[in-house]
Design a protein that fits this description.
86 residues, alpha+beta, binds zinc ion
C-alpha cells in the first residue's frame, strides 16, 4: 500500500467521525470498552418495607469507548442506571 492510499483512507475515517457522532450505525461496528474510572463514595443501602432501596448507589463510572470499525471515540458516564455520553 502506498502512502497516497493511506492518506485517502484517513480522510474517509475523519469524515465518518464528524458525521456520525457516538451513535454508530454501521452493521460491522465493534465497540471496544477501554479504561473506566468510578467515584468511590459509600452509599449504604436503606430499604423501605416494600424492598425499595431509598439510598441508591450514586457513584459515577466513566468509560472510554471506541468503535473499531469507524474509529469513533467517546466517553460514557453511568450513574444509578442512567448512561450519559460526555
Ligand atoms: Zn462504528
Amino acid at each position: 500500500m502506498s502512502n497516497f492510499n493511506m492518506q485517502g483512507s484517513t480522510t474517509k475515517f475523519l469524515s465518518e467521525f464528524v458525521d456520525g457522532g457516538p451513535g454508530c450505525s454501521r452493521d460491522d461496528c465493534r465497540i471496544q470498552h477501554g479504561a473506566s474510572t468510578t467515584t468511590a463514595a459509600y452509599y449504604p443501602p436503606v430499604y423501605d418495607k416494600h424492598g425499595n432501596n431509598l439510598n441508591p448507589d450514586m457513584n459515577t463510572t466513566t468509560t472510554n469507548k471506541r468503535c473499531l470499525s469507524c474509529g469513533k471515540s467517546w466517553n460514557e458516564s453511568y450513574q444509578n442506571g442512567k448512561v450519559t455520553i460526555i
